[in-house]
TrEMBL record:
It catalyses: a 1,2-diacyl-sn-glycero-3-phosphate + CTP + H(+) = a CDP-1,2-diacyl-sn-glycerol + diphosphate. It is an enzyme of class 2 (transferase). Pathway: Lipid metabolism; Phospholipid metabolism; CDP-diacylglycerol biosynthesis; CDP-diacylglycerol from sn-glycerol 3-phosphate: step 3/3. InterPro entries: PC_trans. It comes from Rhodalgimonas zhirmunskyi. This is Phosphatidate cytidylyltransferase. The keyword Transmembrane helix applies. PROSITE patterns: CDS.
Length: 263
């Protein structure tokens, strides 16, 4: 089990258990605990992003992570100023990264907004929706991991993410749909009209999670690095682990915003 295509399964599973335990406690507590966890994840992702773009400037990575560590909690406390604070963060980081200004600004904005979205989802819609989103991302990743290694087959986007297969991608969608139907029917007892919309919604969020992963893969290939860092055994960095969560969180936040505006 320690060699070949399953060589990372042991450390990957051990790290996953720890992350699930920490995340479950934060989700249960909500409030400040969940906001602090989201802040930590966002700050570490920004630190990794700057380190990838400027690998020989560790001090700059720490400084820019420190800036976000101040601005992100302010955005949580004062959501009316969130866009303004986001523009400051993206502008400062992009202005200090030379030839990759656009990439850093765009990805910083995505990380910042997705983190805020996760906090707002937990705050406004309760632990149930937040837990469902986490479960959807996890099952997308797990189903894709095993199906991709067992079934193999054509690559989903070989130029960007050479390990991701169509079999793993579709398996992630199926897992997300099954989980969402279980939640909709047996947990919330939704009427059938709502349940029908669960299927395309689950696929869309699963795809958003996968696209978050692919977006990070594109950055890593551009910067010629294997992992965003080595903070998490078996997973690489925080960005390697939470890129899918950020993609799905951002998509769900935007979806809820559209529904709210249409209501």
């Amino acid at each position: 089990m320690s060699d070949g295509k399953w060589g990372d399964l042991g450390p990957r599973a051990g790290s996953a258990v720890v992350m699930i335990a920490v995340g479950a406690v934060a989700l249960w507590l909500g409030g400040i605990a969940f906001a602090l966890l989201a802040t930590l994840i966002v700050v570490l992702m920004i630190w990794e992003l700057v380190r990838m773009v400027r690998p020989r400037h560790e001090v700059a990575a720490r400084q820019e992570a420190g800036i976000v560590a101040v601005l992100f909690p302010l955005a949580i406390l004062y959501p009316s100023f969130a866009v303004f604070l986001l523009l400051i963060a993206a502008g400062v980081l992009a202005g200090r990264t030379g030839t990759h200004m656009g990439l850093v600004a765009l990805y910083t904005g995505g990380i910042f907004l997705a983190g805020l979205g996760l906090v707002q989802i937990r705050l406004d819609h309760g632990m149930g929706m937040a837990l469902w989103l986490v479960g959807l991302v996890v099952i997308t990743d797990v189903a894709g991991y095993f199906a991709g290694r067992i079934l193999g087959g054509p690559k989903f986007w070989p130029k960007v993410s050479p390990k991701k297969t169509w079999s793993g991608t579709v398996a992630g969608w199926i897992g997300a749909v099954i989980l969402s139907l279980i939640v909709a029917i047996w947990v919330y007892d939704w009427p059938m009209a709502w349940v029908i919309w669960t299927v395309p919604g689950a696929v869309a969020l699963s795809l958003a999670s996968q696209m978050g992963d692919i977006a990070e893969s594109a950055i890593k290939r551009k910067m010629k690095v294997k992992d965003s860092s080595n903070l998490i055994p078996g997973h690489g960095g925080v960005m390697d682990r939470f890129d899918g969560m950020m993609g799905a969180g951002l998509a769900l936040m935007l979806g809820l915003l559209v529904v709210h505006m249409a209501a």
